[in-house]
Sequence to fold (463 residues):
Amino acid sequence: MEQRVRTTPNGEPLWSSYIHRKGAALGLPIAGNFELTSNCNFNCKMCYVHSSNHKEAMSAEEWIELGRTARDAGMVFLLLTGGEPFLRKDFREIYSALVEMGLLISINTNASLIDDDMFDFLVKHPPLRMNISLYACNDGVYEKLCGKPVCDIVKHNIRRLHDAGIGVKINASITPYNASEIEDIYAFGRDVGVPVQATTYMFPPVRINGDQYGCSPARFSAEEAAAYMLKCREQYLTPEQLRNSSGIPMDDDTDCAAEEGEHMRCRAGRTAFWVTWDGRMLPCGMFPCEGYRIADMGFDAAWQAVRAYTQTIRMPKECVGCAHKKQCSACAASVIAETGSAAVRPEYICRMTETLDRLTTEKYGRSEEKQDEDQ
Amino acid sequence: MKINKEVIHREIAGEHILVPIGETALHHSGVFAISEVGAEIWEMLCGGKDIPEITAALLEMYDVEADVLAKDIDEFLNMLRENGLLSD
Fold:
């Protein structure tokens, strides 16, 4: 009679990967994302959410009931996001109820609204992880990009949450407005002891721009995005590591990319779903589609519809045989946001990937392993 | 024996996990994946059963030698103690 016990933190990622694989085989919604609000106290130039004061479309009771239904269907992991989730006056009520369900909860936040009371609450009821956006290390840049000079508050909260034992990750969106901050953001992360995940790729905000695919007023050219991405990678990779990996995934979800002729391989619509602030289920939050209204269909039917929709998606044929296929992390959502179709070559992403590969090789050389892959 | 009340047992697709919540989660971020037998033991502990009662119940449920079972129960309880999920 075998007792199989694995403990975290070292074992948990292994179990997470395992349960996602098992969930995919069984069609279970293992990971949910709840967009608790469409409101944000920031007004970031590159974002699809902007400062607003909309009435919340879903009550605390509705989010809690949705959490219970999703948990009963298999949900283990839950990301609470927005907008800015701490803007909700009933955040504690929603969060506490979801924690009591045994869900492993992460929170996306800009950390500007975490006062002493909320800090104490989070320490008493710690989430699995807090993903905190840090856009700059000085107020001038913060105000230029986000409209709020709150750098010190955000840094203070990152430091004290980490020091209290809560898992924290810094998310850094790098745009032309804050490109000067890359080194300082990484230095701050090293000083505090928290990982930094930066990206210079900005999704076209098609959720607010309608069908203006590929249009993103607050992002770099593809070539600039590649150059600054290399600068980001230089903050935490050694020259040897850079030589061995000249491409760059646009996020750290390395199984997110898909291949031509195949279905999507990321978790969206396979074991993951996203619920918008007004109760529509999507494969992920970056999908510019209407989705499925849970109040009308019920959770299970909406999940099955999302799964079926995801199965219909195919990636561009041009990806076949592309020399940068292994280094490219274009996903279905990004390809649609760039082109209006998952099957059309996303020129911006292609140019960014090609340029990053070239710049990295020019500066750091090419490992024998990479040369073999080129053959 | 006293179980830590800040732990939730869940079953997902036949897999059993113990999820620490509250301040226990500060010390154990993530989950403890346990076997089906471990889940049985945990539930009996939650129900206030002592070791002889748990042992007797498991001998009824599983085709296992008593000394093997005793060793497995001991290992499981030690894991719970070491991680603050159970105290004497």
User: Anything to note?
Assistant: The mean pLDDT of chain B is 94. The first helix of chain B runs from residue 24 to 27.
